[in-house]
Amino acid sequence: MFQLTAKKEDGKLILALSGRIDSANASDAEAQIRAEAEGFSGELVLDADALEYISSAGLRVVLRLKKLNGTTKIINVSSDVYEIFDMTGFTEMMDISKAYRKLSVEGCEVIGEGANGKVYRIDADTIVKVYKNHDALEEIHNERELARKAFVMGVPTAIPYDVVQVGDLYGSVFELLNARSFAKLMIADPSQTDALAKASVDILKTMHSTMLKPGELPDKKAEAIVWAEFCRDYLPQDVGDKLVALVKAVPDTCNMLHGDYHIKNIMQQNGENLLIDMDTLAMGHPIFEFSAIYAAYIGFSCINHDQVKEFLGIPYEQSVQFWNATLKYYFGTEDADTLRAVEDKAAIICYARLLRRTVRKSKDDEAYKAKMIEYCKQALCDLVPRTQSLTV
Fold first, then answer.
1. What predicted TM-score, i.e. pTM, was given to this entire model?
2. Are residues 164 and 184 in the same domain?
3. Structural domain of residue 308, as residue ranges?
């Protein structure tokens, strides 16, 4: 038995196919499909989630439909039905995608969180990163390719091996046996803070020593210039002009950058440390990485120090301790003036980013938003005039 339901969504006509399409009902199925698609010129999507079987007669229906509407694609195809399409060459002629395994994270431990997703432990062997964006499939496939690129280049990272559906969201599945984030380790034993900072620097240096080809990844400097130029309207002219000039003067380098490097995105598995959340990979001078690290440990909590506890799970004082230890081990010095100079440079880029982000956000509490904007402006007015270069 064949059934068809139709709906229009985001300019697409989605036809949900249910049951079987074979020689006995192919003509009737085609008539139903054509009746719904008649006169529609936009993207035509056949949702095969409930399609149990399709015969050669059904394949001819799909072929004629594809000729009628060149945008036709098929989604949510079961493994058995996908094999039919694959064996007959249809997967080479049109866009056909398999159904994603459905997974529940109800009651699962949250072991990490980044800008774009939350990481859950499913069982002793498996974790899943659930993306916050409802239309994240392109991001997921992009992250997998970026993780592979980093892994091949020697950066210790976990590579996702499956894509799943979690409610109305999508996720990537990783095999990470008994892995715990650095955040969890620091919460369990604060005395590890210094040692974990040193371990995080080892990975960070491996990543930054990985040199890419021009254009191989997004350019972080180009993004930072946008932040700086936005800030011009909120700063005295001399400060705004100098801020833009400082960012533009940062050397164009091809170092690999993580882009969202913090203790929730570093995992420890049986003594081995691995990075997750590779969808933010970029390239550029390491100062841009340090600005993001500063934001995670200090910048985002500049108005309310409790925010770092909400995000990373550790007290603000421990977060500052981790930041200071990171600088000490990365630059190989305990000289306070040297480390303060690096912090100031990172803070300038951080607060330019946060000023733009805060102004553009509409959901924040207005009183908090006003305080954050004023704090960022004041920080930039203090730091920019006495800084001659952002290079470290």
1. 0.77
2. no
3. 180-386
